[in-house]
Amino acid sequence: MTDADFLTATRTFYDAVAEDYADHFPGDGLAGRPLDRALLGVFAELVAGAVADLGCGPGRLTGYLAGLGLPVFGLDLSEGMLAIARRENPGLRFQQGSMLALDLADGALAGAVSWYSSIHTPADRLPSLFAEFHRVLSPGGQLLLAFQAGDVPRRHDRPWGRPVCLDFQRRRPEHMADLLTRSGFAVVSRTVREAIEPLAEPVPQAILIARRPRRAAP
């Protein structure tokens, strides 16, 4: 599959379900997830400067990060999701774009968040994705990466009756940490928590924090 293929499939899926998603998942999605909130707070303390919420969807996490005092903007492929993000967060900036080709200068960001947004990137494109994250982060910049832990993808076929289908990939945390290291990051924190049963999470969840070193490795 080419980049154009999976990007188009992802954009089409989220454009189709954007309003259904917003109605079905109100709020910021962090209720009942105290560990997630704690790690977002740690990330906010580590960052000093501009932050991008990459793959921001309806902008709920963007708004949460802004509430932590971060100068943050959101980016997403889906104009349908961005319309909701702008509607619900009128004081924040949102723009359309691909995480694989960010319209940002080298070292432009102090922090980047990929909150369950790498899960549609094919495995063979993850090194390119992480290289792009590394490029746009300044030395000392922080990356927060969240994803479902596991090996077997979950296919969402015709959600809410919409005629679209998309695979949601699950990844092994140790593999993702190794890819980040190979892309020049230093992994700062690696957290895997069990699924929260009352929230009907199907599998454990992983949250990694990685830093672009201030000096390149020799």
Q: Please tally the helical runs, counting DSSP H or I stretches of 4 or more residues.
A: 6
Protein structure class: alpha/beta
Outline? globular
| Poorly predicted spans | none
First-residue to last-residue Cα separation: 35 Å
Task: Report the sheet with the most strands, covering strand number, pairing sense and barrel closure.
Answer: 7 strands, mixed
Strand order of the largest sheet: 3-2-1-4-5-9-8
Q: What fraction of the residues are assigned to beta strands by DSSP?
A: 15-25%
The helix fraction, in percent, is 25-40%
Quote the average pLDDT: 95
The beta-strand count equals 9
What integer value in Å does the Rg equal? Answer: 16 Å
- List the secondary-structure elements in sequence, H or E: HHEHEHEEHEEEHEE
What's the short story on this structure?
The chain is α/β, with parallel strands linked by helices and 218 residues long. It is built from six helices and nine strands, in the order H-H-E-H-E-H-E-E-H-E-E-E-H-E-E.
What does this structure look like?
The protein is an alpha/beta fold and about 220 residues long. It contains 6 helices and 9 strands; from the N terminus they run ααβαβαββαβββαββ. A 7-stranded mixed sheet has the order 3-2-1-4-5-9-8, sandwiched between helices. A two-stranded antiparallel ribbon has the order 6-7. α1 (about 5-25) packs parallel to α4 (about 80-90). The longest helix has 22 residues, at about 5-25. It is globular, with a radius of gyration of 16 Å. The termini are far apart. The model has no long low-confidence stretch (mean pLDDT about 95).
